[in-house]
């Protein structure tokens, strides 16, 4: 019994096989490194081959690069067919691919009636379609390829990416899926630079729960992670010296958290390593906020908790 409680037994991912969409950059790259340096075989999926290759070279370890577009059913099925040429089992599928489409004419004056109306009118069909294809449809596409549909494909959920991988997941002793959503899917962030992003991430949260329910007969766990601000291509820029600087909105956003800073790589890797290990085997249909207390602050606004005025955009 004592041996089972050792950290190296509880949280080891050595010898497991993990697939990470969006694994070449941002949070996905962090997760790729976390699994690779801890002895897992990692399959990283993305649209840009050179980004995948550069990540694999930088990190080292057992990393397989698969170029593919996970925003469509056909694209996800093609990814899984490529994966099957390299592995016979998947222990963990991490859906991390995501995009954010900003307003075409952004403004900070959110309380002005004309500005508020103009911002909403800027959102067009393509904004909704592209955001949902990657943030929602694309996360679900990998489960559906090799089984009869459990339910009609939901255009508002990361459905395709998750369903195509079922046959490979069923060969695992601890099959699990992690959907990376965002705290933006939980709160009404008026200052967020993308209206469709928040809606798509809310869909990802609920889809995680629905997939957990549908997949329980197969003993496949599905859990959701809602990160706050972590430096990535979406929230920050990297200078010539390699220094990472948050953008203006990211800087404001971290001020609206109890810790007052962006997340560190190890702080997003840790809960996902937990979910993928023996230590997380009793966790299913959970939604874990990893946001430095931002959700607490956003909820607390309505109870009189307010951080410094300079942390707010109007």
Automatic annotation (TrEMBL):
It holds the Pfam family adh_short_C2. InterPro entries: NAD(P)-bd_dom_sf, Sc_DH/Rdtase_CS, SDR_fam, Sec_Metab_Biosynth_SDR. Keywords: NADP, Oxidoreductase. Gene3D superfamilies: NAD(P)-binding Rossmann-like Domain. The keyword Hydrolase does not apply. One of its GO terms (molecular function) is oxidoreductase activity. Belongs to the short-chain dehydrogenases/reductases (SDR) family. This is Uncharacterized protein. It comes from Saitozyma podzolica.
